[in-house]
Write a structure and sequence with these properties.
By secondary structure, the chain is of the alpha+beta class. Helix content is 26%, strand content 19%.
């Protein structure tokens, strides 16, 4: 059933761990791709994560 959960909920926010739509991609300090929800995007930009398109 884990695959079914991933199918409907999609990605999880790295900062708040919520499943929301409209996730934004950022690059962290170690060069890894992370997904951040729109409510946490301001916090991610203050922490100097690089926004990807």
């Amino acid at each position: 059933m884990n695959w079914l959960n991933k199918l409907f909920h999609g990605k999880k926010c790295v900062l708040c761990h919520r499943h929301t739509s409209g996730m934004r991609k950022y690059m962290d300090d170690h060069g890894q791709l992370i997904y951040v929800c729109p409510t946490c995007s301001g916090y991610a930009e203050r922490r100097a994560f690089r926004k990807l398109k």
